[in-house]
Write a structure and sequence with these properties.
Length: about 350
């Protein structure tokens, strides 16, 4: 299988064949807030992925770390590698070097440190409620949100000196070559500063998260790719429901309802064209699935692959984005015991 699918001979089976060996680098499998139940628990999704022949999954936990989840699943579900990550969100103090240090030492092998999702300044200033049929940013609708949440959100200075906390976090990540840095849901300018800082501090692997990638032009994405940066694509960008998905904050008023009102449209053909122009050799795909009102992450991965076939991507290009690049980013091939903790290699750190 090295060619594009023959238009006159398309099969039900090809997506399933391409699922074998695939890696979903962005899976939400709970636990989540009781107000926002997920679709599958971590073991259920690992079993489904293993049954489909998938190679690995990376768990995301918007509240902090998922290495403990990966640790438990790896102990009890052989035959598939699962990995954990840590997202710097406000629940753990945002830019908190101690939280990062702990995350890197938790059993289970943390493979990704992210600047966070809901609690970056960029994202927190955009999450919205709906008033009189219009999206209104939470910080405008609720002064308490502005005072208590937006004020705590993570901001990366576009230029100039960085805080001691950020410097320490970058040093911690640089000391772990198997770990990749995820930009998180930051702004356009912050993406470039993070990449610059990663180069300065000697961090080998950077992933531009999907919403941040969506803020970049094709030329900018190509420039970053030429610097060795991975660019994420998530199925949720093009295949999601226009209803509230994630409850990060426990307060009912703080549910992000902004996309009940169509804001930007990201037509599927345009999205696919961008992947093609940037170059599949630089793209890492994941589903970002896990909420109850979407299919399972494994079905999501099958849909991703099917859509790519529908848009004429070759089998090799699909493999690059769903298997080879993710494996490289995770360093699975260098890993004698996939998904096991590497903590023992790092008894002391800066
Ligand atoms: Zn996500």
């Amino acid at each position: 299988m090295t060619e594009s699918e023959d238009f006159y001979f398309r099969t039900m089976e090809l997506p399933d064949e391409l699922l074998v060996g695939a890696i979903d680098t962005h899976v939400h499998a709970g636990p989540v807030l009781a107000s926002n139940p997920g679709h599958s628990d971590p073991i259920e999704i690992a079993l489904e992925a293993r049954a489909a022949g998938m190679r690995a999954i990376v768990y995301y936990d918007v509240f902090g770390g998922s290495s403990g989840t990966a640790w438990m699943v790896n102990r009890h579900v052989p035959g598939i590698a699962t990995y954990g990550a840590y997202l710097m969100n406000s629940g753990h103090g945002g830019l908190n070097p101690r939280a990062i240090k702990t995350a890197l030492h938790i059993e289970g092998g943390c493979r990704m440190i992210s600047f966070g999702s809901h609690c970056t300044h960029h994202q927190a200033s955009r999450e919205s409620t709906v008033i009189d049929g219009k999206a209104v940013p939470l910080h405008e609708a609720y002064p308490k949100f502005a005072a208590e949440e937006l004020s705590r959100a993570i901001r990366i200075p576009a230029e100039g000196a960085i805080s001691d906390e950020l410097a320490e976090i970058l040093e911690l990540v640089a000391a772990r070559p198997e770990v990749y840095l995820n930009t998180g849901h930051v702004s356009h300018d912050e993406v470039f500063r993070i990449v610059e800082l990663a180069e300065e501090y000697g961090i080998g692997k950077v992933l531009v998260s999907h919403p941040a990638r969506g803020l970049l032009s094709v030329a900018e994405q190509k420039d970053l790719a030429a610097r060795g940066v991975y660019l994420e694509g998530a199925l949720v960008d093009i295949f999601a429901t226009a209803v509230p998905l994630t409850h990060y904050y426990v307060e009912r008023d703080y549910i992000d309802r902004g996309f009940e009102i169509p804001r930007t449209t990201r037509p599927v053909p345009t999205y696919m064209e961008t992947l093609r122009e940037v170059g599949p050799e630089h793209i890492v795909l994941g589903t970002d699935y896990g909420v109850r009102n979407l299919p399972t992450a494994v079905q999501g991965m099958r849909t991703w692959i099917t859509l790519l076939l529908d848009y004429g991507f070759t089998v090799d290009q699909i493999r690059a984005m769903t298997a080879d690049n993710p494996a490289r980013m995770l360093g699975i091939d260098d890993d004698p015991e996939p998904a096991r903790s590497r903590v023992a290699q790092y008894p002391e750190e800066p």
